[in-house]
Write a structure and sequence with these properties.
- The structure holds 2 protein chains of 2 kinds.
- By secondary structure, chain A is α/β, with parallel strands linked by helices.
- A 6-stranded parallel sheet of chain A has the order 5-2-6-7-9-8, with helices on both faces. A 5-stranded mixed sheet of chain A has the order 11-13-12-14-15, with helices on both faces. A two-stranded antiparallel ribbon of chain A has the order 1-10.
- Chain A is 36% helix and 20% strand.
- Chain A is globular and about 65 Å long.
- The longest helix of chain A has 16 residues.
- In chain A, 56% of the residues are buried.
- The model of chain B has no long low-confidence stretch (mean pLDDT 97).
- Chain B has a 5-stranded parallel sheet, sandwiched between helices. In chain B, strands 4-5 form a two-stranded antiparallel sheet.
- Chain B has one domain: 3-Layer(aba) Sandwich (Rossmann fold), CATH 3.40.50.
- Chain B is α/β, with parallel strands linked by helices.
- The longest helix of chain B has 26 residues.
- Chain B is globular and about 50 Å long.
- Chain B contains 11 helices and 7 strands.
- Classes of the chains: A alpha/beta, B alpha/beta.
- Chains A and B meet through helix 3, helix 4 and helix 5 of A and helix 5 and helix 6 of B.
Chain lengths: 334, 321
């Protein structure tokens, strides 16, 4: 057990699975490297997540592609239909818009529309979310929209430990998984075992426990929720359950409903815009199945209904933060 | 091609034609739900290509997919059951006409999104290359589909990785209801593919033997590691874009003329009987057999077991929770 960044934890997961299963390969832009004057030049991914793979496994299993997202996803899914275990990398979740058909009409549907005669065990890794001042087209989350599609599984880790275990599960899964890596968390560190381990999908984590208010958060919002919960506990003696579903699909409904049954108060936090998103989804779930447990109206903390702005001041204003979460908790306790 | 090969090719050409003629009748009488797109007129392309393929070779078809399925060896009764939405259909009634697949035959699905099969078939070819296989992957696309970007993304990636992949472009001159002149800047579709960096040839898609020869060359090249190719084959679409298309964009005379001059079946028959490689009696025996096969397929489809509402939940995931 050592302290590792999310980048290194993800990298370890890739190395474990490449070693374990020769059918696993990685395909995407700048994921591998090339030969120059007979010497390997490694790229290892724009964010360094795939470092070392090209040197160890070569171009046969670490395939750099043209900037052609539809071809990347098609190549991965076609190989998966023929028995391989591809991991496709899309550099930014925003760019799935370029290959949306290949994901939602193709990969998500194969098993169903072909009557169960095939599997498409593909993992699509991508960076997600704001916080790097990357502007409107490189900062969106996109995991809410994909969560709405049956046939896909969605994972959004909030820390290095979960990232490694969830990615290993994703690669071993028989179903297609969209794996969202919050780009601001690549350098965030926590204790991560050296060996391979799998975290099952559909099981929420609860980084904080408390009986007063339930906080449900996704991705990097989990960290803000934890900071808010710690602050509330320290300064006000308010105790919060902080629930990180980890996989929006499949969703661990039980953990959320059980927590709300105990606390009677719910705040849902996500950095995506408010409409048709995970915050509205969780609020609707609790309104539908846990309404009688509620002692106060549900509050959500989200980004506004605007594109992600670039300037530091504006992005700071756009993203949720612990202060806004604390204010929401105060409202549901009022 | 020897005698048995020729007879087999004729059998499949006739099967493809009769399947579509029969589907049309059943569709028009309300037996089949949904949208259906008929392949009649273009049979020599699917058969000319797929005669070179084994079950290990993979193909991906289009929304106009019945012909490719049959040419690849899908069972006509199981296909008809699928059109009817029966649980005994190839996709248990979950797919229907635009999503017929039979993985045991290397048929990775008809695909209702124009051009979408090309990148997926590149992935199948990648799997062959990665596992040291000698099998190839073929995607079919229409001339209309050559105007969608993902087809060129797929072509470029196949060239960059030198994959065993054949792009078959079926040029029927229509993109749904829009003529190719109004949709395609460069009418030379082979030149467009060649510009991506691979061998590309254009043949008369009404001539089975021309398609068969050109496809054989491209497939053999792919099998021996020579990389991807494109084959453009032009042939008419005898019916509308979909069944129910009133075809206000072309006259009945034009269609009758196409049937008279550009029908791959009489063309095939004339050649094999003139050469003396097949007799009229042999061909007639095949015709009778195909009628019987189609009668049987439709009878099975009509009597096929129906899904129950609970079936809607099956096959979404291997395992969700």
């Amino acid at each position: 057990m050592t302290i590792k960044s999310m980048r290194d934890a993800l990298n370890e997961a890739l190395h474990h699975e490449f070693e374990r299963d020769p059918r696993v390969f990685l395909i995407g832009e700048d994921v591998g490297g090339f030969e120059k004057d007979g010497q390997p030049v490694e790229i290892g991914g724009v964010f360094g997540v795939s470092k070392g793979l090209y040197r160890k496994y070569g171009r046969k299993r670490v395939i750099d592609t043209p900037i052609s997202e539809a071809a990347i996803i098609g190549a991965a899914s076609g190989a998966a239909l023929c028995g391989m275990r591809p991991i496709a990398e899309i550099m930014f979740a925003d760019l799935t818009a370029v290959c949306f058909d290949q994901i939602v009409n193709q990969i998500a549907k194969f098993r169903y529309m072909f009557g169960g005669q095939c599997a498409c065990p593909v993992v699509i890794r991508m960076t997600t979310g704001g916080g790097r001042n990357a502007g409107a087209q490189h900062s969106q989350t996109f995991y809410p929209i994909f969560t709405s599609f049956p046939g896909l599984k969605i994972a959004v880790p909030s820390n290095a430990y979960d990232a490694k275990g969830l990615l290993i599960s994703a690669i071993r899964d028989e179903d297609p998984v969209l794996f969202f890596e919050p780009k601001v968390l690549y350098t965030e560190k926590c204790e991560v075992p050296d060996e391979a381990y799998a975290i099952p999908f559909g099981e929420a984590a609860m980084p904080r426990e408390g009986e007063d208010v339930t906080l449900v958060a996704f991705g990097q919002s989990v960290n803000w929720a934890v900071q808010a919960a710690d602050e509330l506990r320290k300064t006000r003696g308010i105790r919060c359950d902080v629930i990180d579903p980890r996989t929006p699909s499949p969703l661990d409904e039980e953990t959320i409903l059980e927590s709300v049954a105990a606390t009677g108060r719910l705040v849902v936090i996500d950095e995506s815009p408010p409409r048709c998103g995970l915050t509205a989804d969780i609020a609707a779930l609790v309104a539908d199945k846990g309404f009688r447990d509620l002692k106060a109206p549900i509050k959500t903390v989200t980004a506004p209904h605007t594109p992600v702005p670039q300037a530091r001041e504006l992005e700071r204003a756009y993203l949720p933060n612990p202060r806004r979460i604390i204010a929401a908790v105060e409202e549901v306790l009022a | 091609m020897d005698h048995d090969d020729l007879l087999g090719a004729y059998r499949r050409l006739r099967l493809l034609r009769e399947f579509e003629e029969r589907t049309r009748v059943e569709f028009q009488t309300g037996q089949i739900a949904g949208f259906t797109h008929l392949y009649a007129g273009m049979e020599a392309i699917a058969v000319g290509v797929c005669e070179h393929l084994t079950d290990e070779d993979r193909i991906i078809s289009t929304h106009r997919g019945h012909g490719h399925c049959l040419a690849k060896g899908c069972d006509p009764a199981a296909m008809m059951l699928e059109l009817w939405g029966s649980t005994d259909g190839l996709c248990r009634g979950k797919g229907g006409t635009m999503h017929i697949a039979d993985f045991s035959r290397g048929m990775l699905g008809a695909n209702a999104v124009v051009g979408a099969g090309a990148p997926i078939a590149v992935g199948a070819a990648l799997a062959s290359a990665m596992t040291g296989g000698t099998w190839v992957a073929v995607s079919f696309v229409g001339d209309g589909g050559t105007n969608i970007g993902s087809v060129y993304e797929a072509m470029n990636l196949a060239v960059v990785l030198q994959l065993p992949k054949i792009f078959v472009i079926e040029d029927n001159g229509w993109g749904e209801m829009t003529p190719i002149a109004n949709a395609t800047g460069n009418r030379d579709l082979a030149a467009r593919a060649a510009a991506m960096g691979m061998p590309a040839v254009a043949v008369d898609g009404v001539d089975f033997f021309a398609v068969h020869a050109a496809a054989g060359e491209a497939i053999a090249r792919a099998r021996r590691g020579g990389g991807p190719s494109t084959l453009v084959a032009s042939a008419p679409r005898f019916y509308g874009h979909h069944e129910g298309d009133p075809q206000l964009y072309r006259s009945r005379e034009e269609i009758a003329d196409l049937r008279r001059r550009e029908d791959c079946l009489p063309r095939f028959i004339e050649r094999v009987t003139t050469e003396g490689s097949l007799t009229a009696a042999e061909l007639a025996a095949v015709d009778a057999d195909i009628v019987r096969i189609m009668d049987d397929a439709v009878a099975k489809a009509k009597a096929g077991p129906r899904p129950v509402p609970g079936d809607v939940f099956d096959h979404v995931y291997a395992r969700y929770r």
